[in-house]
Amino acid sequence: MPKLKLGAVVYALAAVALALSAVAVHLRWSAYADVQGWPVGATVAVDALAAAVLAIGAATRRGLVADAGPWICRNGWLVLGGLTVAGALVAVLSNQDMTPFPIGPVVLLPHFVRRLQESYYQGVAEGEAEVRAGRGGGFRRGF
Questions:
Q1: If DSSP codes are grouped into helix, strand and coil, which group holds residue 30?
Q2: Helix (H) or strand (E) holding 44
Q3: CA–CA distances in Å: residue 107 to residues 36, 97, 123, 136
């Protein structure tokens, strides 16, 4: 069984949150109770597409800012940024009292996950270097 990467978990949680947001808008819960017309469909589409992009990042376990791999894994953060702009435009152009799901911070998620993974792998490499050098880097007996 493959190990579960923290980045994949973060992407999956964000995808679930956006999918739930799409369902909440479609069912017109809370802030969307009085929203009518095209803004409902547009907001559902933006949230569902953003959830799909994040789910792809989780399923491929490469993320959305990868150096190699499929196009979506290398440029997914651009797609996510475009969807964020589209969501903001829907909220502004709708002329209705609606607040979009906070998709804005999700744009920063791919870069955060990338830095988190780089730091992890750097720490693993340093630990392996210490072990090879004979320093151990862990608890030593016989203080």
A1: helix
A2: helix 38-60
A3: 27, 24, 26, 40
Q: Which helix (H) or strand (E) holds 89?
A: helix 71-93
Which tokens hold the place of 36? Answer: 């009518």
Query: Amino acid letter at 2?
Result: P
Q: Residue 3 — very low, low, confident or very high, per pLDDT cuts 50/70/90?
A: low
CA gyration radius for the chain? Answer: 20
* Closest of 51, 48, 30 to residue 98, by C-alpha: 30
What's the pLDDT at 100?
A: 63
Write the DSSP symbol of residue 64: S
- Counting every residue written for the chain, the total comes to 143
> Could you report the per-residue pLDDT of 33-49, keeping only the tens digit for each?
788 889 889 989 999 99
Mean predicted confidence (pLDDT) in 93-118: 76
Whether residue 81 is predicted with pLDDT greater than 70 in this model: the reply is yes
What lies within 8 Å, CB to CB, of 21 at 6+ separation is: 47, 51, 101
- Name residues whose C-beta falls within 8 Å of residue 106's C-beta, 6 or more positions apart in sequence: 14, 18, 50, 54, 80, 84
